[in-house]
Amino acid sequence: MFNKIACQDSQYTAFDKADLDTILSSGIISFGAVPVSKGDGDIEETDISYAVRDNLKKNILANIEVSTGDVAACVVIGDRKTLDNTAQESLEHGFEQLSRLLGSGSTVHRGIYHTQKKGLVIYTIIGGIKAPEQLFNYFK
Question: Are strands 107-114 and 120-129 parallel, antiparallel or unpaired?
Answer without folding.
Answer: unpaired
